[in-house]
Design brief:
This protein is α/β, with parallel strands linked by helices. Helices cover about 25% and strands about 25% of the residues.
Amino acid sequence: MSVRELVVLGTASQVPTRHRNHNGYLLRWDAEGILFDPGEGTQRQMLRAGVAAHDLNRICVTHFHGDHSLGLAGVIQRINLDQVPHEITAHYPASGRHFFERLRYATAYRETVRLTEAPVDGPDGLVTLARTEAYTLEAHRLSHPVESYGYRLTEPDGRRMLPERLAAHGIAGPDVGRLRREGELRGVTLADVSEERPGQRFAFVMDTRLCDGVHALADGCDLLVIESTFLDEDARLAADHGHLTAGQAARVARDAGVRHLVLTHFSQRYPDAGEFERQARAAGFDAELTVASDLLRVPVPKRRP
């Protein structure tokens, strides 16, 4: 049975707190696991959340500030200690290759796993990083004091078979599968008895000001994980430090048609996490909304009807 869900490992910005670990997010997408921004303490959070090193297939780092990358050393060494049997691919900004190498080889250990580095670099706009049968992984540059990228995962569009149309054309049983594979059967085309089913979309947007990349990544997402470091009254501070407010993140999600918005990466200056939800609602976002907390699990919404 396939599972598509986000496992939140940490939600703090800059420094961990008593109740929030450094960043860390695992996306389970059917048989694959993609780990985003493993900050300090991610290895322990994985243990608490029931996430094993064997669950990982990719690691995606948005940028090389410590709260998004200091956990790389521990995670990579755990992958090797547990002798994960499959290849793991790491994506990160190409300008930070020296940081990745330092973290990868921070201490002595025995390498037993093939870890392939695939740095992100390229022109403005969406950059394709990988294509599999289950998804296309893309990245888009964001606006932060250091080079930063957001990531988007898109499932290929499919077809939904319509029973009433199949019955009208006398197609049933094994012939349905044959028509799906071949595209035509006895003069009946796939388009005659089915309709397009949009693939699911997920996006991960961390430290950034408002920019074209934020909107491009969020467009049409079923699940959007996005930073909201500051509340709206501190918008100037957010812009100065390359971050978003709760209201800004919510307006992006509203305009992009996001179905489920996950706010995260909170400054420790705010004691009331509920204020992030209140400001997001005040900004006009009326779909499903989650203010993330550590060890929370968020399912990807079911496919659009």
